[in-house]
Structure formats: C-alpha cells, structure tokens
Design a protein that fits this description.
There is one protein chain. With about 325 residues, the protein is α/β, with parallel strands linked by helices. The protein has 3 domains: about 5-95, Rossmann fold; about 100-205, Diphthamide synthesis DPH1/DPH2 domain 2 (Rossmann fold, 3-Layer(aba) Sandwich), CATH 3.40.50; about 215-310, Diphthamide synthesis DPH1/DPH2 domain 3 (Rossmann fold, 3-Layer(aba) Sandwich), CATH 3.40.50. It has helices spanning about 5-15, 30-40, 60-65, 100-105, 110, 130-140, 180-190, 210-225, 245-255, 270-275, 290-295, 305-310, and strands at about 20-25, 45-50, 70-75, 90-95, 115-120, 145, 175, 195-200, 205, 230-235, 260-265, 280-285, 305. The chain has a 5-stranded mixed β-sheet with strand order 6-5-7-8-9, sandwiched between helices. Strands 2-1-3-4 form a 4-stranded parallel β-sheet. It has a 4-stranded parallel β-sheet with strand order 11-10-12-13. α9 (about 245-255) links the parallel β10 and β11. α4 packs parallel to α6 (about 130-140), α7 crosses α8 and α8 crosses α12 (about 305-310). The structure holds iron/sulfur cluster (SF4). Iron/sulfur cluster binds next to loops.
Length: about 325
C-alpha cells in the first residue's frame, strides 16, 4: 500500500465543505482508491470511484465530477498539472518507499563516466528522494544540476513521458533515477547527452544510448511505412492536458500544403481499434506522445508523432522527441 495521507485529504475536503467526491486512480492504485473511498465514506463524504483507468494528471475527470454533482475530484498517483478545472482537485502522488542512495552508491563507477557536472532527474515516484541523492552525489565530488522544468511539471528535477524540460540544463551527462525505459530514452533524445538510468528497485545501471538508437531505428521504420500515404487522420484528444488543437490544425494545414489529404479527428481515449473502419492510410497523433510509440504494435496503419511527420515531409532531418511544453 502507498501512503495516502487520508487525514490530510479529509481535512482539505472539509475545508471545501465537500459532501460528495470522485476518486480517479491509475491501474496500480485501485486498492488504495477503495481504501480511501471507504475511509471517506466512514467520515461522512460520499465517494465515487471512477472505473476508467487514468494514465496521467493530463486526464482529469473534472467534467465527469461536475456532472455527478461532486464537490471535488481526488486524483491518485500523479502530481499537480496546471489545467483549467471545473471542480477543485486534490492530487495524491504515489511516492515509492525505496532507498535511491543505495543504488547510487553501488554504481558510483558508472556515474563517474558521465563527467563531473551532471543533471539529475527522476519521475514523481522518487521525487522526495532527489535531495538525498543530490547531497550524496555532491559529497562524492559531483556538481549536480537539478533543472526547474517548465510549467507542466510540479517539482524541480521531475520528468514526464511528454516533458523533459527539467533535464535541459548545462551538464556533461544526465543521471535518471527510476524504472522503465521510456523516460530515460526520452531524456537521452531530448538532451542529446550521455544518459545513465539507475533503477532503485533492482540497483541496476543502464546506459541508455543503445536503447535510444534502437528506439530511433524503430521510429524511422514507422516513418518509412508512411511514405506512400495520401490520406492522413490527424488525431488529438479531449483529455484536458493532451488537447493540442492548435498544433493539430497546423499539422492538417502542413499536410494539405504538401499535397496530402488530411482530416482532424478528436477522441478521448486514442486506440487503433476505435479508428478501424476509417479510410486513412496513416495517422498523426497530436496528443500524448506515448500513444503512437507505446501502442504501435496494435496499429495496422502507420502512426506518427508531429515531429516524425516533419521528417516524412522533408522539413526536419534529425530525429526529435515529441514533447508537450507548459
Ligand atoms: Fe503522461 Fe502522456 Fe499525460 Fe504526458 S500526456 S502526463 S506522458 S499520459
């Protein structure tokens, strides 16, 4: 179980004079959502749990909360994102209880290969450990930079799958703390600097450069598959933090200027299954950058990010990761 600080939540809800709330949760925190709902109900607050899986702070169910007559929305697992909301929202990030310093100390030899001046980043799960990690590395003689990031992130040093602004500081290399490949590959591509990923759970250290190369090769193959496409579906999402309507319209215009047919498509949850039956040769997703990448195996038509489309149209040479800035 993650820490929920349920008493603090209750206090905030009482300040809001909330009588009914909607709780949103990612897949991994369903049990915590149930526990919280039970706790709040026992304290006189009617609690509804959203059964829709939530992937990020970019997808608040505030419209649904309002429609259901809820006085507040509780969002588990992610951190604050500045969005225009219809009901007050309480964020409860899920912080991991794992000692990051142990993994750093085990991998000091590898970290030294990054150089003396290093950028330090992580995901929200480990953000509370970042200062400890910084102090440890400074004692070991490193100059550690923790970037503030732009308005889309909540904490200095935090990266999202769609935003690596906190990693873009003056440094020789980047040290990422966390599990999984997507974030460190994004960091390596966004900064174009040597990137070392340290997994605090397993204690393993991985140089991300090879992964990044493999990633780019796969994406070039996807771009190549779209070379002969004439009709493009350009998709954006109605999820508040993924709606990039202005950029999607620019992409439609760009395609038309290059002699292609293009149609804007708007949907909430983007999946190929929901698009089957449309007569498009290829798609461009102008929403969460993870959608055309993570889910590519399930698409029977080529699916690109806006930056990849620019390569296809000959407007860009170098591969660039799609980011949503704030
Ligand atoms: Fe995460 Fe995608 Fe939302 Fe960015 S847009 S916060 S990567 S789910």
């Amino acid at each position: 179980m993650h820490e929920l600080h349920e008493r603090e939540v209750l206090e905030k809800l009482r300040e809001l004079n909330a009588k009914r709330v909607l709780i949103q949760t990612p897949e991994g925190l369903k049990k915590e959502a149930q526990y919280l709902a039970d706790f709040l109900e026992k304290n006189g607050i009617e609690s509804l749990i959203s059964g829709d899986i939530n992937y990020g702070a970019c997808d608040p169910a505030d419209r649904e909360a309002k429609m259901l007559g809820c006085d507040a929305l509780i969002h588990l697992g992610h951190s604050y994102m500045a969005l225009n909301l219809e009901v007050p929202m309480i964020f409860i990030p899920a912080f991991a209880k794992v000692d990051v310093v142990k993994a750093l100390s085990k991998n000091l030899g590898e970290i030294k290969k990054l150089g003396k001046k290093i950028a330090l980043v992580t995901t929200v799960q480990h953000i509370r450990e970042l200062n400890k990690a910084k102090e440890f590395l400074e004692k070991e003689g490193f100059e550690v930079k923790v970037g503030k990031g732009d308005g889309r992130v909540s904490f200095p040093g935090q990266v999202l799958g769609c935003n690596f602004s906190a990693a873009k500081v003056e440094a020789e290399g980047v040290l990422f703390i966390g599990a999984g490949y997507f974030h460190p590959v994004g960091v390596a591509l966004a900064t174009k600097k040597p990137t070392l990923a340290i997994n605090p759970y397993s204690g393993d250290a991985i140089w991300v450069d090879k992964e990044a190369e493999r990633f780019i090769r796969k994406r070039w193959a996807q771009i190549a598959k779209a070379y002969d496409a004439k009709k493009f579906g350009v998709i954006t999402s109605t999820k508040k933090g993924q709606l990039r309507l202005g950029e999607a319209r620019k992409i439609v215009k760009l395609l038309k200027e290059h002699g292609k047919d293009a149609q804007l498509i708007v949907m909430n949850h983007i999946s190929y299954q929901a698009l089957e039956g449309f007569d498009f040769d290829a798609y461009v997703v102008v929403a969460c950058p993870r959608v055309p990448i993570d889910d590519v195996e399930n698409w029977r038509k080529p699916v690109l990010t806006p930056r990849e489309l620019e390569i296809l149209l000959g407007l860009r040479e170098d591969y660039e990761f799609d980011e949503i800035t704030g």
